[in-house]
UniProtKB/TrEMBL annotation:
One of its GO terms (biological process) is DNA replication initiation. This is Chromosomal replication initiator DnaA. One of its GO terms (molecular function) is DNA replication origin binding. One of its GO terms (cellular component) is plasma membrane.
Length: 225
C-alpha cells in the first residue's frame, strides 16, 4: 500500500459555527454570542488561553451580526468613526497595555459604538481585571462588561480540537492517533497546536502517513528531551 503524501501547505482554519464544538468549558460563551442574546452592557469580554477559540467565536459572531473583527494593535483614532458605525470585535486587547495611543482609540471607539446602539466585543487571554490597561477609564469600562471565559478543555473537547487542527492542515491521521495523544499530552489548547504542528512536520519530513507509531516516537522524543 502506498504511503500518504504530505505537502507543506498553509493551514486554513475553519471558522464557521458548525466547526466549533460546544462543551461545558465553552458553552456559556457560545450562548452569549448568539445575536438574539442582548448583552446587558452592550459589550462582551471573551477570555481564554491561546487556542481556546476566542478568534473562532469572534468570527462566528461577526458573521452573524455583521460586525468587523480588528486586532487591537491595528486600531487607530482615524479608524474609530467608521468602525463605530456598526458592531465590532477588537481582538487581543491586553496587547496594547503599553500603547497609550491604541488605548485612547479603543476608549473612543467603545463610547461611540455604544452611543450608536451597536455592540462591542473585546478579547484577551487573562481575566479583564488583569489586562493592565494604563488608561484607567478604559480599564474600568472593560471590567464593567459582560464576561465569558473559555476554560481548559476536557478529553472530549481536546479530541475535537486535535481533529480540527489536523483538518485545518488537510491531514487525516490514523483513527488511533487522536485517542493516543489525548491520553498523554498536556491538557491545553496550546499543547494541542504544538503537537499537531510537530507531527505534521515529522510526517512531512519522512513522507509518512500520520500513524500512532509516529505519534509514539514523537511523544517519546519530547519526554526524553
Amino acid at each position: 500500500m502506498s504511503e500518504q503524501l504530505s505537502f507543506d501547505l498553509p493551514a486554513k482554519p475553519a471558522l464557521g459555527r458548525d466547526d466549533f464544538f460546544v462543551a461545558p468549558s465553552n458553552a456559556m460563551a457560545v450562548a452569549l454570542i448568539d445575536p438574539a442574546f442582548a448583552w446587558p452592557s452592550g459589550k462582551l469580554v471573551l477570555t481564554g488561553p491561546k487556542g481556546s477559540g476566542k478568534t473562532h467565536l469572534a468570527h462566528v459572531w461577526a458573521k452573524e451580526s455583521g460586525a468587523r473583527v480588528v486586532p487591537a494593535r491595528a486600531l487607530t483614532e482615524a479608524d474609530v468613526p467608521d468602525l463605530a458605525s456598526g458592531p465590532v470585535a477588537i481582538e487581543d486587547v491586553p496587547a496594547i497595555a503599553e500603547d497609550a495611543r491604541a488605548q485612547k482609540a479603543l476608549f473612543h471607539l467603545h463610547n461611540m459604538v455604544l452611543t450608536h446602539g451597536h455592540r462591542l466585543m473585546l478579547t484577551g487571554r487573562p481575566a479583564p481585571n488583569l489586562w493592565g490597561l494604563g488608561l484607567a477609564d478604559l480599564q474600568s469600562r472593560v471590567q464593567a462588561a459582560t464576561h465569558a471565559a473559555l476554560e481548559a478543555p476536557d478529553d472530549a473537547l481536546l479530541a475535537v480540537v486535535l481533529a480540527k487542527l489536523f483538518n485545518d492542515r488537510q491531514i487525516t491521521p490514523k483513527p488511533d492517533v487522536i485517542p493516543y495523544l489525548v491520553g498523554r499530552m498536556d491538557r491545553s489548547f496550546a499543547a494541542a497546536a504544538a503537537v499537531v504542528d510537530q507531527l505534521d512536520r515529522l510526517a512531512l519530513a519522512e513522507q509518512r502517513t500520520l500513524s500512532r507509531a509516529l505519534a509514539i516516537r514523537m511523544m517519546s522524543s519530547d519526554q526524553e528531551g
